[in-house]
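I hope you will forgive my troubling you with a question about protein structure. You will find the record immediately after this paragraph.
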Amino acid sequence: MVAIAAILFIFADYAVIPFTLSESMAELRPQFAHVLRIYAVLIPFFGLVDIGSSILQSLRLAQMSMVASFVRNLMIIVFLVFASRVSMDAIFYSLLVAEVIGGFMMLWLAKREFDRHAASEGFAEG
């Protein structure tokens, strides 16, 4: 995932060409590339969310995973509402910040619950 994100970040100017072929869209190409670079940074954090959710579900904590996803999505909405009053760049970066926070939140929850489960099963922490 990180490799794909890095490739998209580096080659964003070329990756947006298929979406900006018409003359009316050509002037938007630099803006599309800018947004693609911001979203390329998000890709690894989407993975953290999925991994954390999968770990919680495998520990039979699907409800905790669902609540955490709900909180993450609510946080995204709140960030976007406030950012929409500022600028388009604020919207793009607010999504980046919300996803980073959400990714680390899911990873933290998964690690905490995994450690609790390991301790209750008698496994040593490592």
Notes: The mean pLDDT is 91. Helices lie at 2-10, 12-15, 23-26, 29-58, 62-83, 88-121. Residues 88-121 form the longest helix (34 residues).
